[in-house]
Design a protein that fits this description.
Blueprint (H helix, E strand, L loop, with lengths): L9 E7 L20 E2 L4 H5 L11 E7 L2 H8 L7 E4 L5 H11 L7 E4 L11 H13 L5 E2 L5 H4 L15 E2 L14 E5 L4 H12 L7 E5 L1 H6 L1 H8 L3 E4 L15 H16 L7 E2 L6 H9 L3 E3 L3 E3 L9 H5 L3 H18 L4 E3 L3 E5 L4 E7 L9 E5 L2 E3 L6 E4 L8 E7 L9 E8 L5 E2 L5 E2 L14 H8 L9 E4 L12 E6 L7 E2 L7 E4 L8 E7 L9 E5 L12 E5 L2
Parallel strand pairs: 4-5, 5-6, 7-12, 8-9, 8-30, 9-10, 11-12, 13-30, 15-21
Antiparallel strand pairs: 1-2, 1-3, 14-16, 16-19, 17-18, 17-20, 20-21, 22-23, 24-27, 25-26, 25-28, 28-29
Helix pairs in contact: 9-10
Length: 564
């Protein structure tokens, strides 16, 4: 059989695989539905019009052909950026030979493709080798059609200095240092339901105390709802999930190359919005998934507790869905509390937190986990620092002071690195015994219970404890103009509300800088700068001012809301 003349426009017979049926049998000895075809068949395959021979090429159709080399030169300029991908099941030999003859590779900037030497093209092995030699001699490189340069094209761009280590799984954030208490970190695992995600995130943001919030989205979600993701990124960390949802338990068992591609897709979707993710919330933490995260320089976040739970006590009709919403709330909180407290610990706190007043006496108590087989001496830590001599399940503190506030851990002394400790929080009101409130003006009989706790304002607390009050702070906010249009000469500054809608114009602020002397908590918010007559165009610069002074002395626990 002689090779077809791809040099000319004309018509050829294409041999395609037949549709699948239960009794179809194997394709080329393999149980597969190839879905492909070829212009080149053996004589046995040509004669077998019933089954199509060993490759099941029973579907035959006449198709038009063109001189591809001539078509490229006629339709493109040499200066055009052309990526040429060729996967034509044996026809590449005639096509490339013609392109070399015509000098068409002067038009090609990048060449992807495959060679199919076992296709019955009619060419001898020496003729095929000669073509390969000629390509090499002219320094024409053919990359694999599956993009063997994928890492070069999509290099990791996570900034230097980003917290954590690429590919490492973080199940809790721990302590930054013994002197810095932890914080609660809430993580929203966003599915594809934008309405539910918006409702939940706005509800959390409306809470009067700022809680660090991270939002993880699929690549498909970022593509479908870009404005929503950009809105979240103004105040929260945005991380990645996979490119799209998979059935539970399936993503962690697919081919590792598909896992890598999925993660790249998701990262690129955020790149299109000008966002660079550094954190990845995967379906599981298998080695293939963490390996793909490491390639992209992503830190892996995995929950201490999930809701709805994926292990332990699951949500079913009898224990959850049967009840009204007001009855489901405590059940949900109890499940989260149980997951946070039990999570395989050797010892557990009897209470997750205790709130007392200055001067009170308090006992912090742990209980042994009967399922644990560990024995030996116990050890306590406060904010990461070992408390020498404390080896019992209880820790007594007489005459509590503000300095006693913090996170307390109890564990078997030799096993701290296993993270099986019981953890609880001690909160200390800056009020004398029997008093509570920001100014301690409220009284309570029989001791103030924890539910009456109100964290004092930093200024009031300083006055009560004899500490120096915070000094006034001066903040300088600055924006840079892009291309200033001639008709837009006046600049307005606007302080948006919590939902960044219906922003209030700050009268008299018309420069690219805004100075705030003696910053107060009320100055916190979202600031917008724009050309006065063009606010509706939404071309403003947006930045956020956060004012320290609130107390967030709680242990870092990652809690996941999964939104399907």
């Amino acid at each position: 059989m002689s090779p077809p003349a791809f040099n000319y426009s004309g018509e050829m017979t294409a041999f395609s695989e037949s549709a699948w049926s239960p009794d179809k049998g194997k394709n080329n000895g393999v149980d597969m539905q190839w879905g492909g075809g070829s212009l080149f068949v053996s004589e046995d395959e040509r004669q077998d019009t019933d089954t199509g021979g060993i490759r099941k090429l029973s579907h035959r159709r006449a198709v038009p052909t063109v001189d591809l080399s001539r078509w490229i030169q006629a339709n493109f300029a040499v200066e055009d950026d052309i990526v040429f991908k060729l996967d034509v099941e044996g026809a590449e030999y005639a096509i490339l030979k013609k392109m070399l003859k015509d000098g068409t590779f002067r038009w090609i900037d990048k060449f992807y493709g495959e060679f199919h030497p076992f296709q019955p093209t009619g060419l001898s092995w020496s003729e095929k080798d000669q073509l390969m030699d000629e390509l090499a001699k002219k320094k024409i490189t053919q990359l694999s059609w599956a993009a063997e340069d994928i890492e070069e094209l999509h290099q990791a761009k996570v900034p230097r200095g980003t917290s954590g280590t690429a590919g490492t799984v973080y199940r809790s954030c721990g302590f930054g240092s013994p002197s810095v208490p932890g914080r609660v970190s809430l993580v929203i695992e966003v599915g594809m339901n934008a309405k539910m995600a918006h409702r939940l995130i706005e509800t959390i943001r409306a809470y009067r105390v700022y809680i660090p919030l991270s939002v993880f989205v699929y690549g498909d979600f970022a593509e479908l709802f870009p404005e929503m993701v950009l809105n979240w990124s103004l105040n929260h960390t945005v991380g990645v999930r996979e490119g799209h949802p998979y059935p539970p338990g399936h993503f962690d068992i697919i081919n590792p190359r598909w896992i890598r591609t999925n993660v790249i897709i998701s990262v690129l979707r955020l790149h299109e919005l000008g966002l660079q993710p550094a954190f990845y919330l995967p379906a599981s933490t298998g080695k293939d998934i963490t390996g793909a995260a490491a390639q992209r320089n992503l830190r892996v976040v995995y929950p201490t507790a999930r809701f709805p739970p994926t292990k332990g006590t699951l949500l079913i009709y009898n224990n959850y869905y049967y009840y009204r919403d007001v009855e489901r709330v405590p059940k949900a909180l109890r499940m989260i509390s149980s997951a946070l407290g039990q999570n395989g610990a050797d010892v557990r706190p009897r209470l997750f937190s205790r709130t007392v007043n200055v001067g009170d006496a308090v006992t912090l108590e742990m209980v042994r986990n009967p399922a644990s087989t560990r024995t030996g001496a116990l050890e306590w830590r406060k904010n990461g620092v070992v408390l020498q001599g404390q080896t019992a399940l209880t820790l007594n503190i007489n005459n509590v002071q503000s300095s006693d506030e913090g996170i307390y851990e109890c564990y078997y002394g030799w096993a701290y690195s296993d993270r099986k400790q019981g953890i609880m929080r001690l909160m200390v009101r800056a009020c004398s015994s029997g008093r509570f409130g920001k100014t301690c003006r409220f009284s309570c009989s029989g001791g103030c219970q924890g539910q009456l706790m109100t964290v004092p304002d930093p200024r009031v607390r300083a006055a009560l404890t004899g500490q120096a009050a915070p000094k006034p702070v001066i903040v300088h906010l600055e924006t840079q103009p892009v291309t200033r249009k001639p008709e837009r000469v006046a600049v307005d500054v606007r302080l948006a509300g919590r939902d960044r809608k219906n922003g209030v114009v700050l009268q008299g602020q018309t420069a690219l800088t805004l100075n705030i002397n003696n910053v107060q908590s009320s100055d916190e918010g979202i600031y917008e700068c724009y050309y006065g007559g063009a606010y509706s165009d939404r071309k403003q610069g947006i930045m956020r001012l956060m004012v320290r002074g609130k107390s967030y002395h709680v242990h870092i626990i990652i809690i996941i809301w999964r939104l399907r």
